[in-house]
Amino acid sequence: MFQKRSKLDSLQLIILGILLGLMAAGTVLIVAAPPRGVPVSLAPMPTQQPIIIHVEGAIAAPGVYSLPPGSRVVDAIEAAGGVLENTNYQSTNLARLIYDGDQIYIPENTSNQSDIGLSTPSDQESEHQYLEQVTYPININTAQASDLETLPGIGPQKALDIIAYREENGPFIQLEDIIKVNGIAEGTLSQIQELITVGP
Question: Of 106, 107, 102, whose CA–CA distance to 67 is shortest?
Fold first, then answer.
């Protein structure tokens, strides 16, 4: 009887040892197992690219400048050294937002050009007669380069680009199509949209 009980106790101890071993092995496997799921990595904050604009006209240092996004016309003028004394910019919206690729032109005060020797009276008279011949709005589908150059922000090169674009792609269907021309951005469109048309 005593011998039989001892065998039972030994068997129970063996089973208990096996169970403890299995539990220990399971604990080790759980601890050593790699973490599940995909780790979350935070992307860096996007860096805003500067805008590149062209400032010319009656300013201290005409040229191409890099400004932070959200800049306005007044910021571009300050970056270019400010306006000159013989400047007529009362009609310029200094608070207007500027965009990448914009050209900002500050006109000179032509009322006293003969006094400061910038042009002869005959030059002023011929220029005045030419401006009288230009009627607005200008049809960008038929206008010549000389007419397109009278638009704010459209110089000789952009006028030629407009003509080249319509010759290659056909007439402009709507005013907004002009920003498809290389070098003309939304800011330029906002300056000239009241002065242009695509015709009937």
Answer: 102
Residue type, 158: K
Q: How many domains does the chain have?
A: 2
Closest to 195 measured CA to CA, from 139, 146, 144: 139
Query: What are the DSSP calls for 62-129, one per residue?
Result: -EEEEE-TT-BHHHHHHHTT-B-SSB--TTS-TT-B--TT-EEEE-B-GGGHHHHTSS-HHHHHHHHH
Cα–Cα distance measured from residue 172 to residue 139, given in angstroms and rounded to the nearest whole number: 10
Tokens of 59: 């300013």
Q: 8 lies in a domain? A: no
CA distance 107 to 90: 10
Which residue's entry shows tokens 């006209």? 57
DSSP letter, residue 44: P
Alpha-carbon dihedral of residues 113, 152, 102, 79, nearest 10 degrees? Answer: 20
Is residue 152 scored above 70 in pLDDT? yes
Kindly report the pTM of this predicted structure: 0.38
Tell me which range, 14-18, 28-32, 177-181, is most confidently predicted by mean pLDDT.
177-181
Distance, CA of 172 to CA of 199 (rounded, Å): 9
The C-alpha atoms of residue 42 and residue 105 are separated, in whole angstroms, by 44
Residues 123, 102 share a domain:
no
> Which structure tokens are listed for 70?
């959200």
Please report, as a single letter, which amino acid is at residue 94.
L
Domain containing 81: what range? Answer: 47-110
